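debug: dumping io for the single-chain case to check the tokenizer round-trip. Nothing else runs in this session.
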Amino acid sequence: MAIHYDKDGKIATITINRPEAMNAMDRETSQELVEAFQDFDRDDQLLVAILTGAGDKAFSAGADLKKMYGRAEDGKIGEIWDPDRQWRLGQRLQVWKPIIAAINGYCLAGGLELALGCDIRIASEAASFGCPEVRWGILHGYGALRLPKTVPLSAAMELLLTGERIDAQEALRLGIVSRVVPAAELMPTARQLAAKICANGPLAVRVTKELAWRGLEMSLEEALRLYSALGALVRASEDAREGPRAFAEKRPPQFKGR
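debug: decoded output
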């Protein structure tokens, strides 16, 4: 299996399992990734996913150029409607549950695009980041759209146009990641973050994620209208009554996700 998919209570761990190829993505790997995230999205018991790469050398080095480019069907008009294209090219992961990227080495090209599609990114001290596609005459597509919304424009353009790599500390300085930890602490830190999220109201968490992502593309007026509509739905939920009640009764809330 190119993807290892594990469930532990409310937390799913999705591991790209091609360490011999720096966890590069081929068509089969991408399809398994789609299936894992679809299952995560459907499983009401799961609240947070951690995405990582097998081994200690790479989160993902991006597309497997030897296998994914030069195929007879690639580059034809039919790819516009390819249902898994947005996944295999690393575009935003289409679920409204939180996703944490645990970046344990090279995070390059489509691997960086996958990481940018996650909500929280933490890195090991050995991680490195880059968009080398221009060096090979191809596009860092989703990353070119997303990276300038993550870091200052000049820094984004330097990465996008030079194809050079940066280390974990520079990624932290720019805001690509929120934490840098020793390699041995990477997955424990990711799980600690996931557990903190799981303790919160799941409806409030999902709606907050949706507001944050959609707000990147909307005017403030449009975003406030969306907030008003979604906020009214959340306030009518059992969870929204349970949270203040638990606070008043000085006990942990028992959220049901409804």
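debug: round-trip ok. Residues 27-42 form the longest helix (16 residues).
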